[in-house]
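User: Modeling request: complex.
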Amino acid sequence: MSAQEPLLRVEDLRVEFSTEDGIVHAVDGITYEVAPGRTLGIVGESGSGKTVASLTTLGLTRTQGARVSGRILFEGRDLVALSEAKLRAIRGNDIAMVFQDPLSSLHPFFKVGAQLIEALRAHREVSKQQARARAIELLGLVGIPDPRRRVDEYPHEFSGGMRQRAMIAMALANEPKLLIADEPTTALDVTVQAQILALLERLQRELGMAIVIITHDLGVVAEMADDIAVMYAGRIVETASAELIFGGPEHPYTWGLLRSIPTLDGSREADLVPIPGTPPSLIQRPSGCHFHPRCPYAQPSHARIDPQLRPVPDQPSHHVACLLEVDVRRRLWAELHAGRTPEEAIAAVGVTEEPQ
Amino acid sequence: MSRYIIRRLLWGVVLLVVVLALLFVMFRVLPTADPAKLRAGRLQSPKIIAEIRHNLGLDKSLLAQFWVYLKNLFLHFDLGYSYYSNAPVKELIFNRLPATLSLVLGGAIVWLVAGLGVGIVSARRAGSRVDRASMGTALVLVSAPEYWLGLITLYLFASDIGQVRIFPGAGSYVGLTSDPVKWFESLILPWLVVAAGTAAVYARLIRGSLIETMGEDYIRTARAKGLTERRVVLRHGLRSAINPIVTVLGLDIGVLLGSSVLVETVFNIPGIGRLNYIAITHADFPIVQGTVLVAALFIILANILVDVAYAFLDPRVRYS
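Assistant: Request completed. Predicted assembly structure:
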């Protein structure tokens, strides 16, 4: 983490929903921070709580009856405790959000320009003409050709990539200090994905905003993020700078994520390995380490002991919640990195129950 | 778009001819009172009846009668003459159109305002006591027949027979142009009765539609922009939720313009519905045909209007 004063600091955030089936522990005590101008990547599978965490930052889970505890400090103000009116003044102004599916996230019955103008005028006292001129400028900024004509078109007249560019333009309308991008490229073609990521990087350089990018795809954060937080079952299981995560991942779940993305420099023989099993229910969570049912290296005691997020001994900025011992973890990753299967790695390293 | 509308209008004309043909068959082939006998009154000699039948053109073949009717209708816009008063049907209908329009359009405003208001509040507080009370009331109103509701309101509130005499009762209708205040007062009860059931349907419809819309991604986007909840609901939510309402509104107005028979009869409003009711009891075929023709015309036009409105409401809809 950077030594700078954080722009956003989330402290022990918990979000729960009451449903007929029981209480959903969507976010279970997560802590992270983002410095001005930096990029945090939050990575995890669907249902790991990463979207709920960021919607809660904007207070958008309030209408869904969420129970929120902990603190979300934005420039020192606790957003959790803020009134709806004060939070609204921050939404779309200091903190803006881009969503996964640009087609369903834009209103189908309003022109793109009208939706942009509305975003502007929600926070700025500007005339319609000024707002329209700014909307055209913003569409140009995000690389939409012929913005003067496009401003009067409807979302369905835009291509998928153009829609996401329009969404980004709308989020940038009031030059936010923080942009939360929730799976911004997931619904797009691969070639368009790269364009959108490049656009976000360029805009970040030009406007100096901080970005929280939420994704299930480590490939996306590899390109963009300064820091990475890996989420599993509502918790952060590993967090560090991008270099540390990609250089020496410590959590078996992170290994799984890394081994399930294709790389150009990896050996061709090393097959892509999916993580076995499915993400756990957030109502009936596994005992002990929530990942133990899917972890090839889990020991019997891991089903009882709940691991805490702790610094890695020689890397104080690298935190991990894993019950395996450090040197065991590193030898396992070395084997996996060399292309061995988990079974081969276990045999080579000799994973044993750690002393208690 | 204009080609589409012209095509729809031409099909509408075909549909009108089919409706007329069905009417001809229904009233002349199926057993009904003999208009010639009814008209003869107490002078029921076969000779007089035959003469009347000849004068009314009832002695010609059914096909010939239909042909004459169509020819007069399309060439001269002539709907024929009443068997009883000899008054031109066209004039009878036009004279009664303002009353029906007053009743239906005013009623539509009442049911729209009530339905939208209750529906929006219910949707925003789904599951609350307010919601359950509103939807319960709506169910009762949907189930209440109009004539029953009409008689109950007259019994309760009519200035002549009511328990609480606050509104003018049956037969108090005055034309808008002759006395706007009395016109308004006389229509308060009929408007409420016409609107009650429909408002209930609309409240349930808008509630469901709005709840569904408020779960859409673009509502989340609207909130993320920092818009007020009022603006999110009334602009972004309602704008989408209103579409199904527009569909039924067009059709409901179309249907009611031709068939507000019960309410007009209960409140004795001299409209098309009441004209139709009297004509049916007297086997006055030309009037029945005329009123049904007008009703069908309204429904066909309402359908076309709804489809055209859709193209404006939803920019993704394009007719070709």
